[in-house]
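Review form for a predicted model. The reviewer records the input and the model, then writes brief findings.
Reviewer: anonymous (R2)
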Amino acid sequence: MSGDPALSALLHNHQMLTALQQQFRSAAPSYIADSCQVTGLRGGTLNIAAANGTVAAKLRQLAPEIAEKLRYRGCEVNGIRVRVQVTYAVPKPKPFPRILSQNAREQLHELSEHLPDSPLKKALEKFSQNS
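Model under review:
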């Protein structure tokens, strides 16, 4: 890719945006950084796409502080411009399986044995067997 001038410029731009995104993620609070994407840097202004208006409003409040942190880290950022980009999809956290310990399963089973026949008893029995 480095042999073709057009591809070389594209690769350089991608690397710069990736580095800026990493710097932004380290400077901004995680609840903001997870919902934003750096889209460019022009004339010292860092352009950021926010997932929604609420995130954009909070980011505008924190922009001077974040810009100062970025300058401290060596980025040539004088200001931050925020735009709402609704099409930017916020990555959904991966669900993690909830597994009961052997002791918890035994306790649920024991509790279900002391209950009269009811939907709760059936649910506890099923839960203690499947987990």
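Findings: The chain is about 55% helix and 15% strand.
Further findings: The CA atoms of residues 107 and 128 lie 8 Å apart.
Recommendation: see findings above.
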